[in-house]
Amino acid sequence: MPHFNFGGTGQKPFEDAGCPVNSCIITDRVTDKLEMPVEEYDAVLFHMYYVKKWQLPNQRKSHQRYVFFLLESPQNVPVSTLPVYKDYFNWTLTYRFDSDIWRPYGWLASRPMPINEYPSTTNFQLIQPQYDSNENILIQISQKKHLVAWFVSRCNVASQRSKYVEKLAKYIPIHIYGKCGNYSCPKGNRTGCYEQLERNYKFYLSFENSLCKDYVTEKLFGVINYNVVPVVYGGVNYSKIMPPMSYIDAADFSTPQDLADYLLYLDKTPDEYVKYFWWKSHYRVYSQSKHVLCKLCEMLHNLNLPNKVYPDIREWWGGKGLCHSPQEIFKSF
Predict the structure, then answer these.
(1) Which of 7, 26, 122, 188 is spaced 20 to 30 Å from 153 by Cα?
(2) Contacts of 123 (CB under 8 A, 6+ apart)
(3) Are the C-beta atoms of 7 and 21 separated by less than 8 Å?
């Protein structure tokens, strides 16, 4: 992940992001030569998917903020793979809601959203469904040929999503694209695949590979801009990030058969199915993460922030109760 996907080095990424405080400078020691000793920088970001114990700085100054950066779940990066970091990290930058800097894979905000506003689950304005006749979507769904699609490349994962899909497929047809199925879409053409999904399918399985606290990825946010209804399967509280009647949660159904019956009902009842698109005229979907740069730079310039340190980052990251087995979430698995 060059430059943490922040758009390069120097001051320009902060300027391009339109940050209110933009006098920070990024240096990437992996791809660039450091202009000064690492202990002189105000913040050091550690990408914990790649960092090794021997790569840690040998010296550290008291003014520095060490930032724990990770977008994978604890089931993909277990705490056992992390060295013991006692009283080491000051801030966290992850998808978790309780991170010091929240970096979601995507988010929704009520229209309009100021360009420099930070995404937040605390200011997510809940709008009650307002169902209007949407002739354009009704015409589009009448042309859809198939019921359910799933794009997947990792078959055996902690969430055991393949087992759930196997049970679901006993009652409804599911077209599985990728290494775990019999259908394919041109590799490297994600937009084309999503457009194909929108043309031909009514539902998409937005099934996560891990059932961990707040973990929701592009499996959801990659498809919700398209006119297809996501069926979600994950460890996050979806009501905190999505409006009602914008998704179908597998956890709300006692059995995969019950879920299948509901999808078949919607398939036969277009006026009910189309209600799942009401939110599109009231919310916008965001996926860029430039706000992270702005937040980080702003925090580094805020001299009133209290000192903070994580006594045990491994406990915060992957402690007891933060991840679950499917049997703990789903009523019948």
Answers:
(1) 7
(2) none
(3) no
Query: Of 220, 255, 257, 254, which is closest to residue 235 (Cα–Cα)?
Result: 220
Angle at 177 between CA 175 and CA 178, to 5 degrees: 150
How far is 41 from 61, CA to CA, in rounded Å? 9
Per-residue pLDDT, averaged over 55-67, amounts to: 88
pLDDT attached to residue 118: 62
Q: Has residue 110 got a pLDDT over 80?
A: no
Task: Please give the pLDDT value at position 89.
Answer: 95
**What mean pLDDT is predicted for residues 139-162?**
92
pLDDT value at 152 more than 90: yes
Q: Can you give the three-state secondary structure of the chain, one letter per residue? A: CHHHHCCCCECHHHHHCCCCCCCCCECCCCCCCCCCCHHHCCEEEEECCCCCHHHCCCCCCCCCEEEEEECCCCCCCCHHHCCCCECCCCEEEECCCCCCEECCCCEEEECCCCCCCCCCCCCCCCCCCCCCCCHHHHHHHHCCCEEEEEECCCCCCCCCHHHHHHHHCCCCCEEEECCCCCECCCCCCHHHHHHHHHHHEEEEEEECCCCECCCCCHHHHCCCCCCCEEEEECCCCHHHCCCCCCCEEHHHCCCHHHHHHHHHHHHHCHHHHHHHHHHHHCEEEECCCHHHHHHHHHHHHCCCCCCCCCCEHHHHHHCCCCECCHHHHCCCC
Q: Yes or no: say if 71 and 6 are a contact pair by the CB < 8 Å rule.
A: no
What is the average pLDDT across 312-333? 89
Residue type, 278: W
Our answer to whether residue 315 is catalytic in this structure is: no
Given the residues 15, 72, 117, 195, the one annotated as active site: 72
Closest Cα to residue 72, out of 216, 200, 177? Answer: 216
Closest CA relative to residue 305, chosen from 63, 117, 76: 63
Rounded mean pLDDT of the chain?
88
**What percent of the chain stands above pLDDT 70?**
91
